[in-house]
Structure formats: C-alpha cells, structure tokens
Amino acid sequence: MSLLHSAASLRSVASLRSATAVRYLSYNFDLTPAVTDGFAGAVGNTPLIRLRSVSEETGANIFAKAEWMNPGGSVKDRAALWLLEKAEERGEIRPGGTVVEGSAGNTGIALAHMARAKGYHCVIYMPDTMAPFKMQTVRMLGAEVRPVPVVPFADPMNFNHQAERYAKSLDNALYTNQFFNLDNRQAHMDSTATEIWKQLNGKVDAFTCSSGSGGTWSGVTHFLKDKNPNIKSYLASPPGDSVYPFVKSGGISIDVDGESVTEGIGQHYITGNVASDVKLADGAFFIPDKETITMLFRLIDEEGIFVGSTAALNIVAATKAAKKVPAGSNVVTIFTDSGHKYATKYFSKSFLQEHDLYDFLPEHLKKYAAMP
User: Fold this and answer.
1) Helices (H), the chain
2) Which of 36, 79, 223, 302 could be joined to 41 by an S-S link, Cβ 3.0–4.6 Å?
3) Helix (H), strand (E) at residue 238
4) Quick one: 248 and 208 in the same domain?
5) Are 92 and 115 within one domain?
6) Which domain, by its residues, includes 314?
C-alpha cells in the first residue's frame, strides 16, 4: 500500500543525533534515495533545514521541514495521500470515481496529482482570489477548477459547501472534506511528526505553524505532545484568522478584524482538525503581513531559500517561539511550499505597493520584488 510505503522512511534520511553534533554537509554522500512505485511512494521524508541566520539571531536552533520537496510541491501531498487511501480502505470511492474538494490551492494541486495517478476524476472548488498559477496548475493536471466568489463559511455558497453538494449529486464521488476529515490530521501524525522526531532524535523543544485546514499543526502537535508533554506548541495566525482570538480567549471568541494577503491560511472559523487538539496549544502568535513579507525576502537574501508567504509566516512564528524556550532549544516549523506559484503576488512590486507592503522594506530587500 503506497500510504504505508511512503511512511516507512524510504529515503533513509539521516537522523540528527543532536542539533549541535550535526555535520552540516553541502552534499549528503550518505543518503541513498529510495526507488518508489509511482507518485504516491515519493511523498514524505523531506529534509529538515536548520536556518543559520535566524538561529544565530534567536540563540535557538530553528529548523524548517522542506515540504516543497514533496512530488506535488507542498505539504498538502501528505494529506491528499491519506485522504484518498483511507477512503479507499473504507470503500468510500471505487475505481473511476470523482474526487471533489474545496481548496485555496495546494490541497487542490495535491489531490489533482494523486487523483490522476490513481485514475480518478477530480473537481476543485476554489476561491476566485487565489493566485492564478494555482488554478492553472490544477487544470494542467487534468482536473476541473470551479472558481467561486469569496463568502464566509456560514454562507451556503462558500466554496467548501458548494464542493460538498456537488459530490453528493454524483454517483461514486468522494468529498475529501480536508477541513473536518481527521484523516488529514492522521497524515501528519503518521508521517510529518514521525519524521521530525526521528530527524532530531527526539530532541524537539517547540513546534509552531499556521493553520489552513489545521491538519499539519494538529497532527504534529498531537504526536509530539504524546511523546513528550513538555514540548511547547504554538499556533501562528495572519490578520483575520479566528484561531488567534480563539486560543487567546480560551475558546470563547473567534471575532476578528482585518484581512491578510497570505493564501490558504487564516480561516474565519475553527476547523475540525484544529478543534480536535486546540487544548494542546501553549499559545498563539499574531503575525502581521509586514513581518511575513520581510521574512519572505530575508529567507532569499540570507539563506537562498525561495518559499511562499505561509512558509515565511511560519519562520516568523518560530522566532517568537524561540523566545519562549531556553537558549539552544530546537524549534521546528514547516516550509509549506515554494514561492513559484506566487510570482505575480508577493514578488510583484505593484502588488506589494497596492497593499502597503513595499515602501517599509529595507532597501537591500526591495530587489526581490522583481516582478512588475
């Protein structure tokens, strides 16, 4: 079974005995990549990258999981694999069926890859404000994209509800329901968190990341806290994300003001994945867009790493988490995807100027807004 196949450390990723004892090589001569049977077998076992600049700045070892190295290009490949193969185990979809989901982009791309590899049709409902390249990528993978206007989750015309209704109207169709299907969380318990634990030989002091569907944060946190309840875990929120007031108010409020230019994170409700483990959160960080964009360009300038806005926000959160644990601690977060899909947004000078996210930047970082 490819789910188990991908989760069984196929790439022989070398364990880090401790953060300070690692020989950081420019090329790992000891790594033997796996031979996999198809697309699904290549999911997971991504490197954990220590970021030198922010580690030195904070006095902690800040590590980010390089999820752009999944075959579909993002952390969502893991959820897509588990969502489909668990459904197959339960007999919820048969050969030749249709996979339907509501997605801001990366889950849609991952499901389009996985559905094509498994011989399913795929239909993705997507907010019409998402980066055009995301929609184009889903279409290039042979899936159907249905862009819809952005409305609140409580509205029946929300993209998630439209996707669910469409799936119910078909014979032999699966609505994967990434926001409330706990197979999403299980994917990260079985793979992402397990890999992190092995890569750092259990020496994890804190974990933080943002929440879209919530599967990554919930699954990794659940696994790590089960291993060691003293590990700290923090949610990270852009403007407009209900998770931040929910955690800060002890579950009383989800009221928010403002919006963010980030994509795929910051829901105006609490997803089923987050709700299942929010009691394990040690706190939450509010990350303004200006801090996210600055870090986006710092990662290129200081590390040569080209990622999207969610990944950059996660690094800002990791620097905040580093201040809450002792010096020398190991803080882990997620590089969700690369920056390629966002060229016309976050790397566009005119887009940044339109959203008041350019003029404040340090002069040496402005050159990375290289698109018109």
Assistant:
1) 2-7, 52-58, 76-89, 106-118, 132-140, 159-168, 183-187, 193-199, 215-227, 243-248, 272-277, 289-298, 309-322, 349-354
2) 36
3) none
4) yes
5) yes
6) 2-74+183-368
